Amino acid sequence: MSAFVEQWRVWHAERERALADPYGWLALISLDWLSEVPATYSAAPGVWWQDAEAAYVDPRGDELFYEGEPITGVQRFELVNSGAGVRVSAGDVEVEVARRSGYLIRVHSPKAPALREFRGVPAYEPDPEWALTGVFEPFAEPKPTTVGAVTPGLNHVYQAPGVVRFERGGVEHALTAFNGKSGNGLNILFTDATSGVTTYPANRSVATGEPAADGTVTLDFNRAVNLPCAFTDFATCPLPPEGNHLPFEVTAGELLPYERSGK
Known about the structure:
- This protein is mainly beta.
- The chain has helices spanning 2-19, 113-116, 258-261; strands spanning 28-33, 39-41, 44-50, 55-58, 65-66, 69-70, 75-77, 86-90, 93-100, 102-108, 131-148, 155-168, 171-179, 186-190, 204-208, 216-220.
């Protein structure tokens, strides 16, 4: 028990350090959707626009850098929808370019109020009973799965490699899984009976390692985390797939952030 708790505390401390990154999610100060008309935005230097395939920036006298090199003319960014973004640096801020159906830009600043006021992430006390064993059942082929988003009218499409089945209280449950963010393991978006009560209403996620040869995985709900939208209004997080609501209280993992609870 003591080793389990200590491992969780080490993990939780690293999680909070990552959130406090000066150019991470808490550093966001703006979100703007690009149009086909070149335009300037209050928090982002340069002139920005998009077409059906890519986003563009023209420095127009501002000092912008991409991948360590100065941008001297129009720079084009063609990105994967719902995939990773790229960063353009300008002074002490970074402009993230991402594709979420259309293109958007978000400015990260180490002087962001949310970063300055960050007090850590409240969480349930770790409990080894919430480290459950599941079985991964792969689909014959990964299924493109469309999910909604916390941003109204926006959808995300992810490849779902299969489902994870597990038992709780003698009842079997199945959760659609996506590929892990690092390219290894699985990532599962879910809600449960605590959502909107003690935990963030839209979603939480729990990651697993690579399934064993017999398909078994560990679903450690003690490490269920909030998505960026729980901390900032400048995120466009996906909602869980249909069917990924657990009809019982998962009293483990991260709670509603202080920033959302008013505490």
